[in-house]
């Protein structure tokens, strides 16, 4: 009789454990599903429903200045143009003087704003460059800095075969120059924001190359991943000073750097990319899991969101797919180079 009772207790105990386990799995599933639903809703709202951000909070139309680096071409030129349209005066910093002069003339004529230009080569890590930046910016009411200047590899290349000069240029332009520009200009942004009772803004161009560790673009990938952590840390530091700091993530955009000329669903031109970026500052779009980061262009945003919600950006699968894609780009690049060499 007592043996029978023991068995009954043991079955009852097991079924209690099983029940508790099933409730845990159910609870976990509910939490996961709710999080996914909330993130999906936020993604849709950010991308397709919420109105464009109003730049009057950053002093638009009130004589304030916006600094754009790498402003003479591609995405930077478009940032300059679209900030001019929002009635910011501009300080444009880039390498080629003739391109800067042409853009200065065009924007001053079209939008009646003041445009100052500075031609420096930031691949040379020399103090004179930054003394010139300081002198140009002195006394100007700057509220926005757009850290856009950047360099990638000439083509996908194994890290061990990367030329030393290319490696040094990528780190100096993408990282050292960005840090120094920000250190020089941000104190003025803080002062201007405080005295004008508006907010300041520091935007930095990141990349999917930094979002996903990218084989055959290892140095570029590392330099952009550095900007992700640095920018997010700075966002925390500058919050109390009323300065918004945001990292902008992008997959390919047609430009001299990407060497892609034709637009597609996944590859916008700089105009459409920058329009989505400036409209979405302060929102997450595809970067729902990140602080102070935005993936603004709709197809890039859906891609980012899907990767994060499935395999994850640091997974073996994502790394292997990225390697395959860049191996194929390298093979095509080398075949084209060989054809051109044969022609000569
Ligand atoms: N295009 C893409 O697919 C893509 C994707 C993700 C992220 N991004 C990021 O977006 C940013 C802009 O890229 P983009 O495609 O617009 O590049 P881009 O068309 O090559 O333009 C780069 C700009 O930076 C300037 N610049 C380059 N090297 C410089 C140097 N040593 N000193 C001073 N200025 C220099 C260039 O001046 P010059 O006019 O003299 O050449 C140009 O104005 C970069 O940070 C890039 O990493 C681009």
Automatic annotation (TrEMBL):
Swiss-Prot/TrEMBL GO biological process terms: fatty acid elongation; sphingolipid biosynthetic process
Subcellular location: Endoplasmic reticulum membrane
Keyword Iron: no
Functional pathway: Lipid metabolism; fatty acid biosynthesis
PROSITE patterns linked to this entry: ADH_SHORT
Catalyzed chemical reaction(s): a very-long-chain (3R)-3-hydroxyacyl-CoA + NADP(+) = a very-long-chain 3-oxoacyl-CoA + NADPH + H(+)
Catalytic-site annotation from UniProt: 220 (proton acceptor)
Transmembrane segments: 20-38
InterPro entries named in the record: 3_ketoreductase_fungal, NAD(P)-bd_dom_sf, Sc_DH/Rdtase_CS, SDR_fam
CC annotations in GO: endoplasmic reticulum membrane
Protein known as: Very-long-chain 3-oxoacyl-CoA reductase
Entry function: Component of the microsomal membrane bound fatty acid elongation system, which produces the 26-carbon very long-chain fatty acids (VLCFA) from palmitate. Catalyzes the reduction of the 3-ketoacyl-CoA intermediate that is formed in each cycle of fatty acid elongation. VLCFAs serve as precursors for ceramide and sphingolipids.
Family, as annotated: Belongs to the short-chain dehydrogenases/reductases (SDR) family.
Keywords attached to this entry: Endoplasmic reticulum, Fatty acid biosynthesis, Fatty acid metabolism, Lipid biosynthesis, Lipid metabolism, Membrane, NADP, Oxidoreductase, Transmembrane, Transmembrane helix
Annotated EC: 1.1.1.330
Enzyme class, UniProt record, top EC level: oxidoreductase
Gene Ontology MF term list: ketoreductase activity; very-long-chain 3-oxoacyl-CoA reductase activity
Subcellular location, principal: endoplasmic reticulum
Mode of membrane association: Single-pass membrane protein
Binding annotation for substrate: 207
Pfam families the record matches: adh_short
């Amino acid at each position: 009789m007592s043996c029978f009772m023991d068995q009954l207790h043991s079955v009852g105990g097991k079924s209690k454990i099983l029940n508790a386990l099933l409730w845990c799995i159910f609870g976990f599933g509910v939490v996961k599903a709710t999080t996914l639903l909330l993130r999906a809703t936020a993604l849709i709202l950010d991308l397709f429903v919420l109105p464009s951000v109003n730049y009057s909070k950053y002093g638009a139309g009130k004589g304030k200045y916006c600094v754009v680096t790498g402003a003479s071409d591609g995405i930077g030129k478009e940032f300059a143009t679209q900030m001019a349209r929002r009635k910011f005066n501009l300080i444009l910093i880039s390498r080629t003087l003739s391109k800067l002069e042409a853009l200065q003339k065009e924007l001053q004529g079209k939008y009646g704003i003041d445009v100052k230009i500075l031609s420096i080569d930031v691949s040379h890590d020399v103090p004179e460059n930054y003394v010139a930046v300081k002198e140009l910016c002195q006394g100007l009411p700057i509220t926005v800095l757009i850290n856009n200047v950047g360099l990638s590899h000439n083509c996908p290349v194994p890290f061990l075969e990367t030329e030393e000069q290319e490696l040094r240029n990528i780190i100096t332009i993408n990282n050292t120059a960005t840090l120094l520009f920000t250190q020089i200009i941000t104190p003025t942004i803080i002062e201007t924001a405080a005295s004008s009772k508006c907010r300041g803004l520091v935007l930095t161009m990141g990349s999917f190359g930094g979002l996903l560790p990218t084989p055959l673009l290892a140095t570029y990938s590392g330099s952009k991943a550095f900007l992700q952590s640095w920018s997010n840390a700075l966002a925390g530091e500058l919050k109390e000073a009323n300065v918004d700091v945001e990292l902008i993530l992008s997959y390919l955009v047609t430009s001299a750097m990407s060497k892609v000329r034709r637009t597609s669903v996944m590859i916008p031109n700089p105009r459409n990319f920058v329009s989505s970026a400036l409209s979405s500052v302060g929102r997450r779009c595809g970067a729902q899991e990140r602080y102070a980061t935005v993936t603004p262009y709709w197809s890039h945003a859906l891609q980012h969101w899907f990767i994060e919600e499935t395999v994850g950006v640091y997974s073996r699968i994502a790394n292997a797919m990225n390697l395959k894609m860049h191996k194929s780009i390298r093979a095509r690049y080398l075949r084209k180079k060989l054809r051109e060499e044969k022609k000569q």
